[in-house]
From TrEMBL:
Residues 44-218, 243-313 form the Exoribonuclease phosphorolytic domain. Residues 23-49 are annotated as: Disordered. Keywords: Transferase. This is Rab geranylgeranyl transferase component A. One of its GO terms (molecular function) is transferase activity. Pfam families: GDI, RNase_PH, RNase_PH_C. GO terms for cellular component: cytosol; nuclear exosome (RNase complex); Rab-protein geranylgeranyltransferase complex. GO terms for biological process: small GTPase-mediated signal transduction; vesicle-mediated transport. Belongs to the Rab GDI family.
Amino acid sequence: MAPATGLSRATFAKLSPHPYLLASLEPSSDDAPPARTNGRGPNEVRHPTVNASSLSHAHGSAVVRMGDTTVICGVRGETILTSNIPSYRASNTETELKEYDLLVPNIELATGCAPQFLPGGPPTTLAQTLSTRIYSLLHSSKSIKPEDLRIWHTQAAEDVEADEDRMEEDEPDTGSGDKIVAAYWVLYIDIFFISFDGNPFDAAWAATMAALRDTKLPGARFDADREMIICSQKESRPLTITNIPIACTAGVFTGKETDRPTDGKFWMLADPDRLEESLCDESVTIVVDCKDGDVKILSISKHGGTVLTPQLLTSKQFLSWATTALGYNSPSSPCKLWIPSSRSRLGRTDPAFVARRALSRSGKNILHVDPNDYYGGCEAALSLQEADEWAEKHRSSDARQPFAAAEVKSDADCIGSTRAYSLALAPQLIHSRSKLVTQLVDSKAFRQIEFLAVGSFYIFQPPSESSPTPSLSRIPSTREDVFSNTSIPARSKRSLMKFLKFVLDYESEPQADVWKARANEPLTEFLASEFKLDATLQSYIITLTLSHDGKVSVKAGLAAISRHLMSMGVFGPGFAAVYPKWGGLSEVAQVGCRAAAVGGAVYMLGSGIKELQSPASDQAEAPIELTFTNDIEVKTKLVVQGTEGLHPNGLQISRLTAVTKSDLTPVFELLTEGAPTPAVAVIAYPTASVTDEDGNSSEYPVYAMVHSSDTGECPSGQYVIYLSTVRTSSAKSILEEALSSLLATVADGQEPSSCIYQLYYEQSNGTNALSMDGKIVSFSSSSSCLAFDDSVLDSVQEAWKLITVGSDEDGQYMKFEDREGGGDDEFYDY
């Protein structure tokens, strides 16, 4: 007998979606509950997740994900003087939000979020409709207090006299010292759809409310002399949200396109996906207020169709459905959107960002709390305004803190927008063979990072009898470089080639026998005795180790040189390291945060831990109770945090970050055919090669990392120079002299431009360690190395094992499903 043939369920659902959905909602068996084709019940919504403070340069932001519909909302405040509002009336305190257009929402669907929305196209009818609905609900719900958007000014006596000729109906009757509204904040609410799978209004509204709850407006005052508004981030204050309107949309499905009789039946499909929306001719949106634990209906609106009549919308049957769909009894209720809960909390250091990425895809619920208002912790990248505020916070000379002795010098007349800059606190190169690169590829996060080539390494040569002017000597790092270098004698070239050949295979048995007995000796002594390298060639090799004090051991030095040489040419000819655009490791941290958000992590910036209560020793299963500085309380099974513990014998590093308009293009010269244009160059000043005005010579090497505007850290035509050396009593003056020498050397006799911004500070080196005390896992502070230290990732993986031990999860560490369908070979192949 021939086997029965037919269409599979998936194929049938695609070919005949109407009858398939109807069959699922009205099963032939009474034992089978009604269900939708996506597996949800008729009243079941997709579990929403909210990640606040997702954008670093907005006053408030949030990412909301409902199934495969993902929306990001950013709120940006701008000021407008009342004198510039044509219809302004001081007596208007009721309708000022709407009359003066102080709330400006805009929805963008042309982002490639779905096939029907092509990037770059004009606003669609749906986008304009959604913007109008968001605008109407913002005003009708009265969630924002007009008082929060007013900028007050106390009039001086002379101001009142000067204004006597103004119309009485336009100005209040004020006396000397009375307060008037001088300006308003205008909130621009930009809503972008990242992915689209139905129910756009609910997702857009949730993102809007979450972003508004996250919004903090700078302190603002009116300067009467200059007739302008002066803002200060130091006096930022949050918006007061008076209520919490939550929207829930349902599609009305009748199955009318089939021959099967429905007897007038219809189904309310809460939170419809894109397929269900195409099958429903009618929808209804109900907006409720979930404030204080009660569910209060604010509005009901219907779109299309004739099934839901006005009588039905006000019937007990419909209101009962609404209470079921929006009540607190369901674990996936939209009202649950605002109730934070967590099993793991991760801190703000760089290892924690990587760990959070791994854990979010390993079945863990993550709540990230950071006392800072920015991502990245010690590796953050700051705008000039943020850098000024950061320097003010770290002015103290307390060496027990990670950062100290911060000081800013700037030329305000030469600086444009402060947000055009993104200065890294601790810039680090990433070698092409680094474990970090491998893990970014394994986790599919590399697609969100733009890597730039790190070009040549140079040695600064001070003036001498044979060369009266300072110069920069390029360090050879390949066989071709060595033989093409005319400044190295032939005999020295042979010695250098002998060392390069040795270090490429230094761990094999013949070579290992040579150095292992001397593993802890200084590398300089090993180079002189074994390879007969002179002081100049030794300085070349020590520079490639990127050692701050130059006192690197044989073991560590050979590993560093080998990594550099093995990384050469991996991603292209002529370079061995890369640098992430837009702020270095800060960008890696933000990409990790966004990736973790996709996995369900929740973020709260600007909130620290106020109180932590660990369970008693006889209550091992009890959760840890946390209270944050914003008074939110949560219970968690595990806390993973970053500490600021410093190594007792660790190095203290002095750093000087400078922005200049001097032309530094010569250090980015292309010397290898087919190589990409580098965005970073490294210049090393050997010990005693820099002397300050007081005659103090540098006791340690000085490193300068020159970044072009291609890094996104400064405007076009400018450069950022990151200088660092071991902290000494004269370190600051040494760094300033090194900066001046570099600018003069590259200028080649021309008058160099002065620096328009300088930030000096001192950084203490942390220990790379991991500790676990009960249910609290702690990472140490990141190091101040010039190249990323792969041992940091060993601590991350160890933490991941500690957290996931004994669980039922069988996911591989940092091995994630490819969400975009691309292969790893699009990034690199070796």
